[in-house]
Specification:
Dihydrodipicolinate Reductase, domain 2; six-stranded parallel beta sheet; 2 domains; alpha/beta; 38% helix
Length: 319
C-alpha cells in the first residue's frame, strides 16, 4: 500500500535535543515526507544534521528557508530562551507548527503567547514527547478500557536525574513529568502544594508537591535533578488496581492483588521509540494529512504544565 505523504517539513534547530529526538524521528519517518529541511544559525551544523538524519536541504536562515523550500509545516526545536521569539517570527506564515516546550521561559511569556496564538487561530502543537512513549500510551489505553468503570484516583510521578544543574530544570525538563501527570489526571489542576524537604544546595532542583485536580484526582510529585541516577515513573492507582509506568523500562499492572500484565521494553529498543519521539512525529503527520489542527497537546496544555512548574520553581528557589 502506498504511504500517503505530507509534502514538505522543515525542522528549526540542530542542537542536542533536536539531534536526540526529532532528527531520529524524521529519519525513521522519511518515507512519509516528500522533502525535508533543517535550519540552524550554524550552517555547518545544519549540513551535518541533514547528513546524519537524511534530510534533503540545510539552511541557516528561517526566512530564506521558507522562501526557497516552501514548507507545509514546521518543527521548531529551539532553546527555551529563544522559543517565544522564534514562534512569533513563524506565526505570520500561518503554517502548522510543532513547537518545543515550554512555550515561554517565564510564566508571563507563556500566558502572552497563548493569547497571541489563540487570537490568530494558530495551528500549534507542543512537543511533549513523553505522552507518546509506548508505556504512557498503553497506560492511557488501559485507563480507558480495562479500568473504565474504576476511575483513576491517585498518581505518583517521580523524575530523578544526575548532574542536572541548569537553573530552570523544573520548568524546562521537570515539566515533562508535570504534563504527563496532567494527561493521566484528565482535568485541569485546582490546587498545588509543595511539601518540606531537607535544605539543599542552590545548584539543583529537589522538590515534592501535591496536586489536586478538578475531578478530585490527586497526585504526588517528586523531582530531583542531582540524585545520582536517571529514572522516570508514574504509578496510577484506582480501586483494586495499580499501573506502574516506567518510561525507561516498561509497564506492569496489578489487578485484585495479581500481576496481570508485565510488558518490559526490549533491550534493543531505539531511544527515539522508547521516549515517544517517533510516535509524536507520526501523530503530527497524521493530523496534517487529515487536515485536523486541534492538536493535543496544545498551547493550553503547555500553559497548565508551566503554571505548576513555575510555582514549584519559585518554591525551590525560595527554600
Amino acid at each position: 500500500m502506498k504511504v500517503k505523504q505530507v509534502k514538505r517539513i522543515a525542522i528549526i534547530g540542530a542542537g542536542g535535543h533536536s539531534c536526540a529526538h526529532h532528527g531520529p524521528a524524521a529519519k525513521a519517518l522519511k518515507d512519509r515526507l516528500e522533502a525535508s529541511a533543517i535550519v540552524d544559525l550554524d550552517l555547518k551544523k545544519a549540513e551535518q544534521y541533514a547528513a546524519d538524519y537524511q534530510l534533503d536541504f540545510a539552511f541557516n536562515d528561517i526566512d530564506d528557508m521558507v522562501t526557497y523550500f516552501k514548507p507545509d509545516a514546521l518543527i521548531a526545536i529551539t532553546p527555551t530562551t529563544v522559543t517565544a521569539k522564534v514562534i512569533r517570527q513563524l506565526l505570520p506564515y500561518g503554517l502548522p507548527i510543532l513547537a518545543e516546550k515550554p512555550f515561554g521561559d517565564t510564566i508571563e511569556l507563556s500566558r502572552a503567547l497563548c493569547d497571541e496564538v489563540q487570537a490568530v487561530d494558530a495551528k500549534i502543537m507542543l512537543s511533549f514527547n513523553r505522552r507518546f512513549s509506548p508505556v504512557c500510551s498503553r497506560a492511557m489505553q488501559l485507563l480507558a478500557d480495562r479500568f473504565a468503570d474504576r476511575p483513576l484516583q491517585h498518581i505518583r510521578g517521580t523524575m530523578l536525574r544526575k548532574s542536572r544543574h541548569e537553573p530552570v530544570f523544573l520548568t524546562g525538563t521537570g515539566v515533562h513529568l508535570i504534563d504527563c501527570v496532567n494527561m493521566f489526571a484528565g482535568s485541569v489542576f485546582k490546587q498545588v502544594r509543595t511539601l518540606p524537604m531537607c535544605k539543599t544546595m542552590k545548584d539543583h532542583a529537589a522538590i515534592q508537591a501535591q496536586v489536586v485536580y478538578q475531578d478530585d484526582v490527586t497526585a504526588d510529585l517528586l523531582i530531583h535533578s542531582h540524585c545520582g541516577r536517571v529514572t522516570e515513573t508514574y504509578e496510577l492507582f484506582g480501586r483494586d488496581y495499580q499501573i506502574i509506568v516506567d518510561v525507561n523500562n516498561g509497564l506492569q499492572v496489578y489487578d485484585a492483588e495479581a500481576l496481570v500484565l508485565d510488558e518490559p521494553y526490549a533491550d534493543d529498543m531505539e531511544q527515539a521509540v522508547k521516549d515517544g519521539a517517533i510516535a509524536e512525529f507520526a501523530y503530527f503527520l497524521d493530523c496534517l494529512e487529515a487536515g485536523q489542527y486541534d492538536f493535543s497537546p496544545g498551547p493550553l496544555d503547555a500553559l497548565y504544565a508551566a503554571q505548576i512548574g513555575d510555582q514549584l520553581e519559585r518554591e525551590n528557589l525560595n527554600r
